[in-house]
Amino acid sequence: MKIVTDYPGGNAIIHEIKDNEVLLEQDLKGTSKWWFYWNFKVIDAPVGKVRFTFLNDEVVSPFGPATSTDGVNWTWHTDGFVDHTHFDFEFTGEKERYFSFSLPYQVSHFELFFDKIKVYPTVSRSVLAVSEGGREIPIVNFGNGKKDIFFVARHHCCESVASYVVEGAVYEVLTNQTELFENYRFHVIPFVDIDGVELGEQGKDRPPHDHNRDYIEKPIYNYTKAIYEYIKDKEIDFYLDCHCPLKWGRRQDEPSFYCRPLDNKPESQKFLEYITEISTLPDSAIKFKGDVRQSSSVQSSNGYFSDVKKAKISFTVETPYSGNLEQGYTVENLHQWGANLLKAIEKTLVNGEN
Ligand SMILES: [Zn+2]
């Protein structure tokens, strides 16, 4: 049995491989603190049960590991959950098997997504910036309007679930060609910290400060410099920065929002009302139950878009890594949540008063 991490998103330090147990830990590359992201591939595992034991604190979600045979399509292996430092997997002779902390979303996922959406009218992509690591940071645009709506993800690279939320919102506006499509110009940035995404880094509290604390007078990241330039002349009605919260438990198991003070922000209040209403309908898998907190940092992207750019509405949304359902979130659940966010935006900006 062999374990590798030399692929996009890979992350683990392997301590020991025994006959039926692997001792390992998450690699804390890209953070100055303890964090919990890991993602590895097992090759030529023997037929039978193998136990995976994590040596650096609790990093196995309540739904066990996410797992995949191809690195593209991932599901939760909840049956394998032993406790928050161990999971088991019964191998049946397969050549390769991937495991991760949550549902990964790499540049290859984005390319598959873009192949699906590029057939819709006005959809285009360009390069917003080139990262420190030489990677092109894509931006996707569509819509016929003049005012602007932004969806952004991965200021913290390990928060992969956020990217599926963005996909869901984009599918919603494109497949329904809603009024928003006619009245707005969309700007979708799937990966801020694209290097961290591909290198399998943690990204939260990256030293000297992470990408979501770079909205300062002299930013250090190429991305932030490029977005300052890009938004210079734009009138932004809606900015949504998509994140994941801490790993799990209590308020980490429900979606939540962060924003700057909402006094004199009637549209923001309306948006929160609408997303509560829409997401708590019986067929919604991911329900927003009112957890809104004021973000203190003006150096975050949400703070910058809100306080400096004076966006009409600006939020950070935190979507749990694994979920509070009977089973872990599926990509479909996350797409639906993204679509619901979009419906709430539409109701707020276009037809709320009807
Ligand atoms: Zn984050």
Please tell me about this protein's structure.
The protein is an alpha/beta fold. It has two domains: 2-100, Immunoglobulin-like (Sandwich); 107-351, Zn peptidases (Aminopeptidase, 3-Layer(aba) Sandwich). 26% of the residues lie in helices and 26% in strands. The protein has eight helices and 18 strands. It has helices spanning 107-117, 161-176, 179-183, 194-199, 222-231, 266-279, 301-308, 331-351, and strands at residues 2-4, 13-17, 21-25, 39-43, 48-54, 66-68, 75-76, 81-83, 86-91, 96-100, 124-130, 136-142, 147-153, 184-189, 236-243, 256-259, 292-294, 313-318. The strands form three sheets. An eight-stranded mixed beta sheet has the order 11-12-14-13-15-18-16-17. The protein has a five-stranded antiparallel beta sheet with strand order 1-4-10-6-7, with no helix packed on it. Strands 2-3-5-9-8 form a five-stranded mixed beta sheet, with no helix packed on it. Strand 16 (256-259), helix 6 (266-279) and strand 17 (292-294) form a beta-alpha-beta unit. It is globular. The mean pLDDT is 95. Bound molecules: zinc ion. Zinc ion binds next to loops.
